[in-house]
Amino acid sequence: MSHKQLKLVTIGGGSSYTPELIEGYIKRKDELPIKEIWLVDIKAGQEKLEIVGAMAKRMVKAAGLDWEIHLTLDRREALKDADFVSTQFRVGLLNARIKDERIPGSYGMLGQETNGAGGIFKAFRTVPVILDIVADMKELCPNAWLINFTNPSGMITEAIKTYGKWDKVIGLCNVPVNAMMKEPELINTTLDHLTYRFAGIDHFHWHRVFDDTGREVTMDIINAIQKGDAALPKNIFNVNFFPEQLEYMRLLPCAYHRYYYREEEMLNHSLEEFAGIGTRAQQVKKIEHELFELYKDPKLDYKPKQLSERGGAYYSDAACEAMTSIYNDKKTHMVVSTLNNGTVPDLPADHVVEVSAQIGAAGAIPFTFGPFQPAERGWLQLMKNMELCTVEAAVTGNYGLALQAFTMNPMIKSGSTAKRILDELLIAHKNFLPQFTDKIKQLEKDGVTVKDDIARTLI
Amino acid sequence: MSHKQLKLVTIGGGSSYTPELIEGYIKRKDELPIKEIWLVDIKAGQEKLEIVGAMAKRMVKAAGLDWEIHLTLDRREALKDADFVSTQFRVGLLNARIKDERIPGSYGMLGQETNGAGGIFKAFRTVPVILDIVADMKELCPNAWLINFTNPSGMITEAIKTYGKWDKVIGLCNVPVNAMMKEPELINTTLDHLTYRFAGIDHFHWHRVFDDTGREVTMDIINAIQKGDAALPKNIFNVNFFPEQLEYMRLLPCAYHRYYYREEEMLNHSLEEFAGIGTRAQQVKKIEHELFELYKDPKLDYKPKQLSERGGAYYSDAACEAMTSIYNDKKTHMVVSTLNNGTVPDLPADHVVEVSAQIGAAGAIPFTFGPFQPAERGWLQLMKNMELCTVEAAVTGNYGLALQAFTMNPMIKSGSTAKRILDELLIAHKNFLPQFTDKIKQLEKDGVTVKDDIARTLI
Amino acid sequence: MSHKQLKLVTIGGGSSYTPELIEGYIKRKDELPIKEIWLVDIKAGQEKLEIVGAMAKRMVKAAGLDWEIHLTLDRREALKDADFVSTQFRVGLLNARIKDERIPGSYGMLGQETNGAGGIFKAFRTVPVILDIVADMKELCPNAWLINFTNPSGMITEAIKTYGKWDKVIGLCNVPVNAMMKEPELINTTLDHLTYRFAGIDHFHWHRVFDDTGREVTMDIINAIQKGDAALPKNIFNVNFFPEQLEYMRLLPCAYHRYYYREEEMLNHSLEEFAGIGTRAQQVKKIEHELFELYKDPKLDYKPKQLSERGGAYYSDAACEAMTSIYNDKKTHMVVSTLNNGTVPDLPADHVVEVSAQIGAAGAIPFTFGPFQPAERGWLQLMKNMELCTVEAAVTGNYGLALQAFTMNPMIKSGSTAKRILDELLIAHKNFLPQFTDKIKQLEKDGVTVKDDIARTLI
Amino acid sequence: MSHKQLKLVTIGGGSSYTPELIEGYIKRKDELPIKEIWLVDIKAGQEKLEIVGAMAKRMVKAAGLDWEIHLTLDRREALKDADFVSTQFRVGLLNARIKDERIPGSYGMLGQETNGAGGIFKAFRTVPVILDIVADMKELCPNAWLINFTNPSGMITEAIKTYGKWDKVIGLCNVPVNAMMKEPELINTTLDHLTYRFAGIDHFHWHRVFDDTGREVTMDIINAIQKGDAALPKNIFNVNFFPEQLEYMRLLPCAYHRYYYREEEMLNHSLEEFAGIGTRAQQVKKIEHELFELYKDPKLDYKPKQLSERGGAYYSDAACEAMTSIYNDKKTHMVVSTLNNGTVPDLPADHVVEVSAQIGAAGAIPFTFGPFQPAERGWLQLMKNMELCTVEAAVTGNYGLALQAFTMNPMIKSGSTAKRILDELLIAHKNFLPQFTDKIKQLEKDGVTVKDDIARTLI
């Protein structure tokens, strides 16, 4: 990076996670010569933007820094000449996630933010918006880096690369960050004594770990995890993997593999919450409300510890670290969504994977992982192709292809109920799915309505 | 083939399908210079062998042929100097299939002969036996062709190629035969006016069809099928595919795709039968009993029409056709399980696929199919890798790998119930699973028993 | 094909090979309901068109057929509503080939029609023309089949598929035809008793052969060929392959492999001809002159035997056979240039290979060949990539890429002489290389001229 | 690495390069807790071993270190419990290289140490010895790392991985080291401000370079090199690449690419030396003699600068750096021969490539490079497959396969002269080619002798 003063832009700046982002910048104040931070949001997010923006200003001031904090609803003004753009927005806000969770749940299927029917619809809503942002960036800041941590992060990065034809993008996820923060202490060491090798796709990857004598410690960590603390993000219900399976695999699954390796228990837990305390998004809505109440406190000028208890913790910090590594050519090891290029030879070379990479001025250079054994290979190939169908359907609005994605998805039992869920989700999210307009009109004409009362009232 | 008189051997000769095989030979008497037909079975099948063997002799005699029919329990005597060996045996007989169906069914999961948990266990029981047969063939008839139609036909052929290292094998299935027999009339033509292109793996393939002007008629057949007759084998419950999905795919799925594309309905139907008239094997047991009663009739010297109503119809005829095509270098189009070699570039070149091939003296030479679109590609890759895990676990008896196969299989909801089903099936089939002996002993020590009463009493 | 009366068009209709084409049609008169045959040529070929066209009319008349023979310089009129278009033109006529041969020869390198520098320049001249033809076809006969036997046939077919985006094309070559006509008698059998399996790219393929008992007879043919008759086209100098090499390969190389496996001897022979009786094109020019003298005879109404002695014999007949097989859905085995799609897994799936295929109404459906051993694999990968560079340079006119193709080509010793040959060829063919206009102007400005007197006078 | 005192072993310890190795250890004395250094050689190298060993002891003493230096002809004693084994031996000593250079040269072909016929024979001689060493290591020091810089380094590493089944090996080459030492100053920067990305195979790789702002500076370096200093090892004749070609490629070729991109000039230079001052090995023999005369000086206790002028400079230092990086888990960027695993997706995943990698306790973890453009892809695929043929022939002694390797090699013009060269080299090296014994005996019986007088007298 040329040693200029930086303009940093965050789309979805009104997010409750913004204090973590600001804290991340402040931690790296000696590495990043920041001039301006632009927090962008949409009309519907204006109130939150103002609350969290005011707090951001307090944090910067408390740190004794002269950074400009701009709050704006004008995305194009913000993007103009930006150096780094990060994205953490949620199309349709938490209400959309509630619908993603409750509509499948109302039919006994998994409702989850990034897996199953909910994950597919989150992609359907987000892809058109991210492609708009990329189009703006081509015009307004063609040399900027796009650091995406909007979920489903892998599919969004895929859309940016494949349909947006934008190469300077790095997709982030906090799941590997969590693993690398929590696992070392399970085997009584620290991260700097270990070599981590991750490979797979977002929310569906595995990793191996080696210590500084070259010994593989993957099984040591597996054994420690199975005994107790699972190094899970806060939003994932803990059920142990089957030890015989891990013993055979000799790979550490990611936290989300629980949905695939213990489908029964994860589904049951999700349906219990659906019928009881409410789905995760309903819970988060409360937590978020409390956070914003905190943020309103004009004396609060640091990130409150309650934020770290959210499932998305460390995402924003990872984004700051990616920017710092690129700017300073730090050649840091990070786990990112980027072009495969052979890193995982079992997947197409020209699509996005989530892998260990060196992050520096030249972007993300992955570490080769090599072929998987048949079980992991088969899973990965299914999941990546499901992603490709989802992203293409998100771009084209093809209903048959959406149905293909639903049919392939292991969290969705195919058949008439699955098709009903697809149809209800289309109707429920109609305001955010311009690509599916014709189909949605036809469904409405056919009288399809949303069964779940809570979801229906949020349309 | 050298123009010698032929010795044909069928392992599992006591099968109720043997009359179709004999009829198939008689139909081709001018093409196959048969000298001896050896029907081999095991002690437990001796009574059936004698009944169906006597009938085979009557059929041959009625056709005015001087072929020798040998009935034997001595497999090695039969294999000595054989020219063609066909396999149609069922390890553990229909009782094993009943257990494969009822144990998953007793926990609300699909119990089916070749899909889901049942299909995996059918492979677990059959692989050790087929590898024994191959070992005998290497010694006793090293130049013979092995025509396998023992199910799960694709996995068994995989085991023969990969672990048996036996190249002269052709795996057969009646699903494509059914399609090619019934579809042409749906579009008012005949098979000889069409070009069929099948690709995939056994019980999981798709096809395209072209007429003799070069026009693709795949969608015409799809439309006709969706209107009515689905060209299904008798053992598959009919539920239509979603038209929007097929419209997108522009490929004809195979009959068994119903289990994957309409999982909900197929499962419900199977559970209804489980709770009601009994699973398919229970029904078949009755049908088979009736068939053998018919076969006992010393006046019956032709294949009774009741046999054609079985799900396995046309398998034996396909075997005869394969032998005739090889012997006479006929270069016939057949759909067979054989080495991939690039035919389906989405799958490993060195494993078995089920594809359109030319069958002649040089064996099966597949017609290149080319890459699939992402949805079909992802499915195929999952399923083929699930097969590879299953076959390897069948050879090694590795429990962790068996669990991997269960976890991957889309017909099995992963979790503690799935693991319970795996454990019960191990115990239920303990007499036929020497490779899993240690694990089974441990399960018995742990007190695992089979819950379903009917299944338990059949152990 | 719809059973309509056919309009057949041949671009380059004035070729001396046209009588073979007409003979081919006449032989198949019961299979092809021909109404019109259009022979198209350019102004420079008008005289030859008239001579050979008149003879074609005599041949058709002598056969008692009422087919219309149209001779025209108006390609678009000819293409209108055509059913089959065949291409046998030579951009720049034989003089261009003389330059292709003499310019490399004048620097001690191989000058050959389809190999080395000459083959690359034949592609450079032909690709722009064939893409024009395809553009016309899209407009005027979008349902026609294009049967290409213009050399270098594989690269021209590649250009048609990859840059012309035209799928209904079949590329032909007479080298496999020659092999299949001459080899069977070497082992005392006939073609109908054999199964041929060819794979590779045009003028660079190998084959295996099996008899009707399934025994591989590849080595038998190799041994017979090495003893004597090499089943070569007339234009290829015969030098034996090294027996130890073939013994290891256990594959039959194609006739052109001599250039690669016996580079020294083939080069020496070519340089002897260059210095002595003249290069092959110079010889052919005389033969062709004699042929046209014969054709002028108003009594000649059949293909004279002298034509069969040309190197290009059987090309035209193969074209007729391809048309007949498509029209009648004959499902004939032919060796054609077509999309790889996995047939040769060592090469990219989306490019053209030359392989055994079934030719019928649905076009060419290749027979899977499978992976090669390392030596053949390496050669093939080099040569196919050399083709890809050549075709792309032929489309874009990029000089650096042309230099890459020259550098890779095993018949060209890289360095300043090779670059000089490239530059001289550009100048020599300047009238037929619009894509390289700027570079040629610059070379002329730099004073580059053609050294060889004969070649220079032909510019 | 466990923090124990290290035992380092060098096979070929009597090499003139040993002082560089010792200097490399001394430079890293704070990073490597060395206890013992074992220099192993064979009887024929004993004198040199004693000279250079004495000097090594002086160097260590001068550095004030207490390391033990052991000189031995007993390889097994040396290997016992070794931590790192490095190999720098030359089977047949420089005389063998003279034969490798002069025999092809005597027929007008390239004689070079690692390219063409000479490179193939260097592999033929070395592979059996390295596989013996690996067999010893499996028994005597199964946890040691093998650092190979015996040439042809890529093929030797391939043999170690594929036939030796030894995974803890790193193959080194000084060509990338040279590039990284000399190129940065050409663009007025230093290595630590650049990111290098190398990919290919040993002596046949390309690289791209990026600066610390992320800008690609590959073309800047190309332009600087073409102007003057080519950053070449001392043993490579300098002829510039064609600028138009590099402009198209936008990749930096390696120094050895001259042999392939400027074949004519490199051959001419080599033949001039052959006819004049003698081949490179003849020159090196003199240089080496002078070096050993220097080494005899009992006052010399540092690496003389004359050694740095050899073509193999930096090899030994790279070996020390690899050991240090592994031992200290330094995660250094180095360019090494290691398993491909997808790094270069154009080559098989299960074979060796030479690529940028991170070197640490877990070994070499390559940085993914991605697919090449067609020209580089085709070259690489040819060369890697030529390597695979060579290594297999080196293991099996198959003459037909040796002929295949010769035929494929772009530095060898195929034909009867090439075969003659192959035969003479077999005879010339008969004492070091046990795998070819039968063929050599037959050649001798057939009266084949070595034509070149100098080469013949060295047998």
From TrEMBL, chains A, B, C, D:
One of its GO terms (molecular function) is oxidoreductase activity, acting on the CH-OH group of donors, NAD or NADP as acceptor. Keywords: Cobalt, Glycosidase, Hydrolase, Iron, Manganese, Metal-binding, NAD, Nickel. Its cofactor is NAD(+). Binds 1 NAD(+) per subunit. InterPro entries: GlycHydrolase_4_CS (IPR019802), Glyco_hydro_4 (IPR001088), Glyco_hydro_4_C (IPR022616), Lactate_DH/Glyco_Ohase_4_C (IPR015955), NAD(P)-bd_dom_sf (IPR036291). Gene3D superfamilies: Lactate dehydrogenase/glycoside hydrolase, family 4, C-terminal (3.90.110.10), NAD(P)-binding Rossmann-like Domain (3.40.50.720). It holds the Pfam family Glyco_hydro_4C. The record marks 113 as: Increases basicity of active site Tyr. Residues 198-411 form the Glycosyl hydrolase family 4 C-terminal domain. GO terms for biological process: carbohydrate metabolic process. Mn(2+) binds at residues 173, 203. Substrate binds at residues 97, 151. Belongs to the glycosyl hydrolase 4 family. This is 6-phospho-beta-glucosidase.
